[in-house]
Design a protein that fits this description.
Strands 2-1-6-5-9-8-7-11 form an 8-stranded mixed sheet. The protein has a 3-stranded antiparallel sheet with strand order 4-3-10, with no helix packed on it. 37% of the residues are buried. By secondary structure, it is an alpha+beta fold. The protein has 4 helices and 11 strands.
């Protein structure tokens, strides 16, 4: 028996299998899905989900982009939303960006061809998810500018399966926050002895 998924926007941890444990450190260091949003058609209001079904080569079932050539899933980080809120001067709710998946922390890769695994679903970066004019309506004046370089990525689905709130995310970049004067983000690599 597994515990129910938390509601979108709440802190979450994935259910553990019987006999296994998840340390508190794992819950804070492993990026996890915190929110899922879909819109049944373009410009429709975003609707929260606890779980979505992804089809390889097609995207999120029930979402406006399902069946398009490349825009299958959009992925953003809560860290970037905090930076956008600082730039905007007001909170930036995940739903206002119109992205499908929000993760707890980390830097979403933007280089085409980079791979990310969300739950068990394999995704490949197509391009940066650039902010559009809708951000000015959903977030207010300056919303699009606040999301520039913080809007995450557009990805294509390479495999099928469910993505649920609490699922772990692999393949995010590692970098200190830009406000601390750090250099560019780096891809995680093999550890050196």
């Amino acid at each position: 028996m597994t515990s129910p998924d938390p509601s979108p926007g709440s802190p979450s941890t994935a259910p553990t299998a019987p006999g296994s444990t998840t340390s508190d450190a794992d819950a804070t260091t492993v990026p996890r899905v915190t929110e899922l949003w879909v819109a049944p058609e373009r410009h429709a209001p975003m609707e929260p989900r606890r779980c979505v079904e992804v089809e390889a080569g097609a995207g999120v079932v029930g979402d406006r982009w399902h069946g398009t050539r490349h825009r299958h899933v959009t992925l953003q980080s809560a860290d970037a939303l905090l930076e956008a809120a600082e730039a905007l001067g007001s909170p930036v709710p995940a739903s206002a960006t119109r992205r499908t998946v929000t993760v707890s922390h980390g830097v979403v890769p933007t280089d085409p061809g980079a791979r990310v695994s969300v739950g068990g679903v394999e995704l490949e970066v197509v391009r940066v998810a650039a902010p559009c004019a809708l951000m000015e309506r959903s977030m207010g004046p300056g919303g699009a500018a606040a999301l520039r370089r913080r809007g995450g990525s557009v990805l294509r689905a390479l495999s099928s399966g469910p993505i649920a709130v609490g699922d772990p995310v692999e393949g995010l970049l590692t970098a200190p926050t830009p406000s601390r004067g750090a250099g560019p983000a780096r891809r995680p690599g093999p550890s050196t002895p």
